[in-house]
Amino acid sequence: MKAMLLAGAAAIMLTGAARAAPADPVIDRYVAWRGGAAFEKATTVHMVGQATYGAYSGPVERWISPDRTREAAALGVLRTDESVSPGDSWTVTLSGQVEALPPQEIAAARRRAALAFDDVLRGADGARVTLAPAETLDGVTYAVVRLSFEGPDRYDLLIDPATGALGAARVTENKATTLTRYADWRMVDAVRMPFREIRQTQDDPQPVTMDFRAVEVGRRAAAAVWKRPAAKRLYAFTGAAKVSQALGFEFYLGSRIYIPAKVQGIETHVLLDSGAEASVLDKAWAEKAGIKPGAAVWASGTGGGEAAELAGGVDIDLGGVVLKNLTVALIDMGPIEKLIGRPIPVILGKEVMNELVVDLDFEGRTIAFHEPSGFRPPAGAVPVAASPSGGLRAVPVSIEGKPPVLMDFDIGNGSPLIVFSDYVARTGLLTDGRKVSKTLSGAVGGVRTRDVATVKAITFGGVTFHDVPATFPGSDGSSVDSARTLGNIGLPVLSRFHLYTDYAHDRLWLKPVAHAADTPFPKDRSGFVARMDGAVAKVLMVAPGSPAEAAGFKTGDNLAAFNGKPLSQEQIQSLKILPAGTKIGVTLADGSTKTLVLSDYF
CA–CA distance from 176 to each of 150, 179, 200, 237 (Å)? Predict the structure, then answer.
């Protein structure tokens, strides 16, 4: 939702490549249409109005000046606030936490804001300006003035070639496209300005509409406009404590962390997920708990996107420390629960890591929470940078001896490693002769077919791990299709350390557990993906070249028993990772039997 509401940041005027000659006539007409000399002199804009996103509506205010920008919208529980200025760029989360913006997002925001002025069309910000093929939008044929910079992002202005009128701007950043249509143009201090914007983000069925009641050109903002909001403390320890009691957690199948908790005073368990930008409640569970949902928003996940609802005022008690007044997303977790084989009433997202040092002891199976200001890392713990990136944190990881790259730090990822398509294209990782097969993976947004292969080695936190099963999503438009980070490192790797998250100081602290580098990673050796459907398990996919394919299994088969025992999702997951050579007698629902011989097929 943040990306849909934010206009972007300020334009820093840099020398750069000149515009390409074919675009000159279109640009000249556009500049004249916007106001000619008055538009060329304009460097500041202030806009106040009303923003609407589905059933959410509320005030929005935007400031853009030559070296800074800010936009804030308050649509009930859906609130956004982002500012970019020299030396201090930040954003505010749904629950009111203030986070630093990473350099790549600052640069992108500045480029978006530069579209409000003419300088970028003259080569400022290092822009390369070309004329792309004409396009028709809403029945009008437009010339497309394209601005490109270093990297794959691009910025298009759709301009009427005869009049110079601007119909829309299309921004493609980090593989996601947003189209903004402009309307209700009025002259403000001799500059033509849009009083209506309709912004449509890729895959989101709901546009954001902004209707401005006041637009000013040339007004200088007061210093208070750029001031970072005071940090909002969302946690409270019991009494004068600075650390919570150590809670035992369930380490489900070595790939999920379930923590006992109370949510709105109701005892339950929560799934810890540093890859969730906001905490999530299952819709059915939330309804039973009396948590009332708001209107629909769009949520992106590793499986793509889906509709979600927001709810505010949620408290999560973690045994001696309480997170208060969170704004959470409500999503139907049923499909994910069936695939994992375990209920997921609540996902505890990054809010807890923003607020506290999280101490995860995987050998002792305990978790504790520390006040950041008083935390001191234990002797022997190694610091690892955890940089802000796309609302999450990214850590350096080296693949097969190559230079380290940033990968998302994701405790909620049950696989050891996800490698994004840009890294694969850059290195040829899947075209070097290694065995490649297929699987189904995902979470929020559903599941998708993806490549799987084994990475010979990765180095993280000073430890080198060998024969790491990895998933390769390709360019599929999901949250694991990014150019700003190049992969995702998951719990089967992270759990090989005593782990301390210290977001307040942009780092992790790691101590390898015994035999961290020597213990083989669990690996699917069956080649089928199956999900319980009543008393049987339905085969959703059979991997090419796998033992399941060799044994004659087909997509759609209904499995009734393994080795004569009735099935559960947990049993299916556990048996699939047994050693190569293990034989499993599989009984199908029709009474027929097959023998599955496990082996390494990727």
Answer: 17, 10, 11, 40
What are the strands, taking DSSP E only, across 160-295?
166-173, 176-188, 191-201, 208-217, 235-237, 247-248, 250-252, 256-263, 266-272, 280-282
CATH class of domain segment(s) 528-597 = mainly beta
Q: Determine contact, residues 543/558, Cβ cutoff 8 Å.
A: no
Closest to 60 (Cα-Cα) out of 291, 215, 207: 215
Stretches in the chain below the pLDDT threshold 50: 1-21
DSSP state at residue 120: G
**At 342, is the secondary structure helix, strand, or coil?**
coil
Amino acid at 92: V
Q: Do domains 235-370 and 378-512 have the same CATH topology?
A: yes
Which fold, 378-512? Cathepsin D, subunit A; domain 1 (2.40.70)
DSSP 144-171: EEEEE-SSS-EEEEEE-TTT--EEEEEE
Q: Find the Cα–Cα–Cα–Cα dihedral 301, 305, 309, 311, rounded to 10°.
A: 20
Q: From residue 379, give the alpha-carbon distance in Å to each of 376, 383, 507.
A: 9, 11, 16
DSSP reduced 3-state for 44: coil
In single-letter form, the type of residue at position 66 comes to P
Domain ranges of the chain: 2-226, 235-370, 378-512, 528-597
Q: Which CATH architecture has domain 235-370?
A: Beta Barrel (2.40)
* DSSP state at residue 243: B
**CA-to-CA distance for 396 and 406, rounded, in angstroms?**
5
The count of other CB atoms within 10 Å of the CB of residue 437 is: 16
The tokens of 398 are what? Answer: 């080296």
Q: In the CATH scheme, what architecture does the domain 2-226 have?
A: Clam (2.50)
Measure CA of the first residue to CA of the last residue in the chain; give whole Å: 38
Q: How many residues are there in the chain?
A: 602
Using alpha carbons only, how large is the chain's radius of gyration in Å?
Answer: 26
3-state helix, strand, coil in the chain (%, to 5): 15, 45, 40
Contact 208, 56 (CB under 8 A): no
Helix (H) or strand (E) holding 530: strand 528-533
pLDDT of residue 259: 98
pTM of the prediction? Answer: 0.91
- 30-63 confidence digits (pLDDT tens): 999 999 999 999 999 999 999 999 999 999 999 9
CA distances from 136 to 10, 144, 158, 176 (A): 30, 10, 9, 21
Q: What is the pLDDT of residue 153?
A: 95
- Residue 93: phi and psi, rounded to 5, are -80, 175
Token digits of residue 601? 């097929």
- At residue 526, the pLDDT reads 97
pLDDT tens figures, 83-118: 999 989 999 999 999 999 999 999 999 999 999 999
Distance, CA of 378 to CA of 367 (rounded, Å) = 15
CB-neighbour burial class of residue 86 (10 A; exposed 0-12, middle 13-18, buried 19+): exposed
CA distance 467 to 456: 5
